[in-house]
Write a structure and sequence with these properties.
Distance between the termini: 36 Å
Helix content: 25-40%
Strand order of the largest sheet: 17-14-16-15-19-20-18-21
Low-confidence stretches: none
Strand content: 15-25%
Number of helices: 14
Structural class: alpha+beta
Shape: globular
Radius of gyration: 21 Å
């Protein structure tokens, strides 16, 4: 499935359908050299440059009216180093392809997000993450990075080489250069046992610290208008493999999670008054199940119902209070919310603009079906998130600007200073970066 589309008149749209761009030209380089040439050429022509992955961001982070770089020819594994336990991949490689290739080699990433359609560079540049007590985002697993800077030169960075660039470029927002290759830490493939079960909102919030502490990967979904949640605990297992059977997988992951859920969205949009009743049914549709499989088959699942999303990272200690405020807001607002609220965690990391930079974090994500009016809900949610010094996901809807980020990111100035050094003429600038980083 190609998530980004180019219209006949050269328009580009993102996956969620809420961002449009009309680039002056599109380039699909087949090598790092060709990409460097495209960057130099754009600078000569006075055009800005943006690389775009599969368009899974809901912000206009990849939009440009200049040169749009599509990385689909820059894919595949460059090198596997079994001594160092690292894998180096081309920037345009989809996560799905990386996960499958690693599994064939008996290897795996330690942690991943819940979808794998994105390219490795798009996912890491925006801070894509899963949930983990001890293991962080996909970017937190990067050990080295190669990027083309504004003058067309290739810069490699790691903890040893250009460490100040490495600190920032792992989640670089496309502001420091165009990533061409990423080296990830990997480990021998292992098994995870997933335990999914319904739990009341009151119990999950009351026991949140305990559930977090007892599980390597804990997450839950709360269904607005109900007191119900679905919880998921993933922990390492000695085996044996017990995957979800094909028919059961189709029924639960495709029919219920995508098919019926899509129908529920349509009904909810046509008749908003039915949303609370549908929510009560949806929240009870998935029964408890346990299965054991290799990581990417446990962490990720298909997401075919298109949506728009806002997600904020709040300090982990503020998670429960934030959620309770969100629930109270939905109940008194008269809003009809047909999409569950997703809650995950991440440990503090050392990446300059990571949403978990320097603090243990909890992620709270609100969604609306594609095409549904989301502004009122997201505005009210954002007011709650920002009151807790929330940091928005760089690839999801938010209204924050550089002034706000300077307050919630202690190292914000470090990032903008590095950008001044690497891209003084703002070749990689767009409206989104102007807003979030300042001009």
């Amino acid at each position: 499935m190609s998530s980004t589309t180019s219209g006949k008149n050269g328009t580009w749209r993102n996956w969620g359908g809420n961002v449009l761009a009309r680039p002056a030209r599109e380039v699909t380089p087949a090598s790092v050299e060709e990409l460097a040439d495209a960057v130099r050429q754009a600078a000569e022509d006075g055009l800005k440059v943006k690389a775009v992955g599969t368009g899974h961001s809901f912000t206009s982070i990849a939009a440009t009216d200049g040169v749009l770089i599509r990385p689909q020819l820059l894919t595949g594994i460059r090198n596997i180093d079994r001594d160092a336990m690292t894998v180096t991949v081309e920037a345009g490689t989809p996560l799905k392809r990386l996960n499958m290739a690693l599994a064939r080699e008996g290897l795996s990433l330690t942690n991943m997000g819940d979808i794998m359609e994105q390219t490795v560079s798009g996912a890491t540049s925006t801070g894509t993450h899963g949930t983990g007590r001890d293991s962080g985002s996909i970017a937190a697993q990067i050990t080295a990075l190669e990027l083309i800077t504004a003058d067309g030169s290739v810069l490699t960075c790691s903890e040893k080489d250009n460490p100040e660039v490495f600190a920032a470029a792992r989640i670089g927002l496309g502001a420091l250069g165009i990533v061409t290759a990423i080296t990830f830490a990997v480990e021998p493939v292992f098994l995870l046992t997933a335990r999914e079960e319904p739990m009341t909102f009151d119990r999950v919030t009351h026991d949140f610290d305990e559930l977090w502490a007892e599980n390597e990967h804990f997450e839950f979904y709360w269904f607005p208008h109900t007191g119900n949640t679905n919880t998921k605990r993933n922990n390492r297992s000695a085996g044996p493999e017990r995957p979800v059977g094909q028919l059961k997988a189709w029924f639960e992951d495709e029919f219920l999670s995508n098919g019926v859920f899509q129908a529920a969205q349509w009904i909810g949009r046509a008749a908003p008054a039915t949303v609370p009743a549908i929510a009560r049914i949806s929240s009870k549709a998935l029964s408890a199940r346990t299965y054991t499989d290799i990581p990417y088959k446990v962490f990720t699942s298909p997401r075919r119902v298109r949506f728009v999303e806002m997600e904020y990272a709040v300090p982990r200690a503020a998670a429960v209070e934030t959620l309770r405020e969100l629930k109270a807001m939905v109940e008194r607002s008269g809003l009809k919310v047909s999409f569950p609220v997703e809650v995950r965690t991440a440990p503090a990391d050392d990446i300059t603009l990571s949403t978990a930079s320097g603090r243990d974090s909890a992620y709270i994500a609100v969604h609306m079906a594609k095409g549904a009016p989301y502004q009122r809900y997201f505005t009210a949610a954002e007011r709650i998130f920002t009151a807790h010094e929330g940091r928005p996901h760089w690839g999801k809807v938010h209204t924050r600007d550089a002034e706000y980020f300077a307050e919630v990111y202690p190292r914000f100035g470090e990032f903008t200073a590095l950008r001044d050094r690497l891209d003084p003429d703002r070749l990689f600038q767009n409206d989104y970066l102007r807003r979030v980083l300042g001009s």
